[in-house]
Structure formats: C-alpha cells, structure tokens
Amino acid sequence: MSVHTENIRKVTVRSLADMKRRGEKISMLTAYDYTTAGIVDEAGTDVILVGDSAANVICGHATTLPITLDQMIFLGQAVCRAVKRAFVVVDMPFGSYQTQPAEAVASAIRIMKETRADAVKMEGGEEIIDSLRRILDAGIPVFGHLGLMPQSINKYGSFALRAKEEAEAEKLMRDARLLAEAGCCAIVLEKIPAVLAAQVASELTVPIIGIGAGAGVDGQVLVSHDMLGLSRDFAPKFLRRYADLQKLMNEAIKSYVSDVKTGDFPNENEQY
Fold first, then answer.
1. Which position has the higher pLDDT, 263 or 234?
2. Tens digit of pLDDT for each residue in 93-147?
3. Are 76 and 90 within 8 A, CB to CB?
4. DSSP 3-state percent helix, strand, coil across the chain (nearest 5)
5. In the predicted model, what is the mean pLDDT of residues 227-247?
C-alpha cells in the first residue's frame, strides 16, 4: 500500500528521535536515481540513503572506495529532486573526510548545498571524531556508521562479522557513545552480533539503525537492489529478498527482443 506523500509531513531529525522514543521502528533503504527514489519515498520509507554502495551496484566496482565526492553529489541531486517525505542521507565517500577536519567540513558543505539532502553519513568512531564534530558545529546533521565499515575493507581483509571479540566489541561501544555524545542524529551498525547491537540501542538515546545487526535496534536498512532481487550474487544471511526483479526484467526484455525480431512490435496501434 503506497503512502500519499503530499498529505504527510517531511521526516526530520526530530521525527527520527520521536520514533525512537515511541518505540516505532525506522525503515531505511538506498536509492541512487530519481525514479527509484520517488518509488521508495511514495511507499513510505522513513530514511533514504544515497549510499556509496552505488560504487558496487551502479558502477560495478568490487568495493565502495573508487566513488568520488562529485559522483555522490550527482546521485544525491537526482534522489533529492524526487523525495517529498523521507529523510535523505548522503554518504561521504572515502577520501572526503579522513585527512583534515577542514576538508571534511568543506566536503559536507558541498553535499548539503548541492544536493539539498538532510544529513551526511560518515564511517568511524574515535578516528574521525574531530572532523565529525566540526561538521556538526557547521550545523550539518550526521549519521554515524560502526561495525563493518566498507570504506575500511582493505584493513579488514574480508566482509566477515565484526566485533565478535571482546576488545573490538568494547571499542565499538566506546565509539558509539562518543558519536552520540558528539551529537550524531543516528548511528548505523553493520554486521555485528545482535546482542551487542541491542545493547547499543538500549543504552543510547539516538536511533540505532541495523544492517545485519539483529532485531533489537531501532530500525533497519537494506540496499534496494538487494532486497528487490536485482542483484543475485550478493546473498548474506541478513538479506531478505522481497521480489525477484531480475527475473521479471529478464522475461520482459526477452519478450521485447522477440517482438522486435518477429515484427510484432510495433503494431498498428503503436505507430503514428
């Protein structure tokens, strides 16, 4: 059932905080283009993430590292033109905030000015806290991201579950507290034990959004291409496929090719 967005108020930072207080789960999906963003928004999704996962599902890269700030802004512009209700978050890509706080602020300001998004998202805890605070001081809402951080994949060496060991779990908890105390409006936890994620969500007052982090958090995020069945090669345990659009598209395109080859398309009613 679709939601008539013109009758519903825009989701804001305050809306997300209120949802956490009420115990209402937050839904979050990715979008990278105008058409998809409009559909995701109309369906009632609370948060739309213009993710650097576009490097994988749009550009075909093996990691998120190659996508640039200019490319993220281009995608964010398309998404924001379509969205009426959802809260739009744009990922800050690798290299746009890890060096100096001044560069991080400049990158975040470009994203906000040029896309008209509602917030940016950054990966990391203590290591990026100076840059994150400067961005928050500039009046820009920030989503944090802990656990499996795809921009650090070369350090990890794999996409395996994170924070299994006590030391890493304790660091994640410290980082989550640090992000919340700094003023992040939400934190994404990716691919960590469900018990740990639930502990973070129960201790902190900011919304905690999980992906592969169990049900004990305040909301869930998935990549739209994955949950719609457009990408078949990616099949982690946490992914639920709600459609098989790859099959539907393949069948439709085969029918089109066949109709063109046989001369069935266009017919007399499909020409001027």
1. 263
2. 999 999 999 999 999 999 999 999 999 999 999 999 999 999 999 999 999 999 9
3. yes
4. 45, 15, 40
5. 93
Q: Which of 24, 165, 181, 190 is catalytic?
A: 190
Listing DSSP states for 139-165 in one string gives: T--EEEEEES-GGGHHHHSS-PPPS-S
Residue 209, SS3 per DSSP: strand
Domain boundaries of the chain, sorted by first residue: 5-241, 244-272
Q: How far apart are CA 130 and CA 112, in angstroms?
A: 19
pLDDT mean across residues, the chain? 95
C-alpha–C-alpha distance, residues 159 and 178, integer Å: 24
Token pair for residue 121?
């998202």
In contact, 143 and 117? CB cutoff 8 Å: no
Positive or negative, the CA dihedral 246, 251, 253, 257 is positive
Using the predicted structure, report yes or no on whether residue 1 has a pLDDT greater than 50.
no
- Domain 5-241 CATH superfamily: Phosphoenolpyruvate-binding domains (3.20.20.60)
**Quick one: how far is CA 112 from the chain centroid?**
16
Residue 190 annotated as catalytic: yes
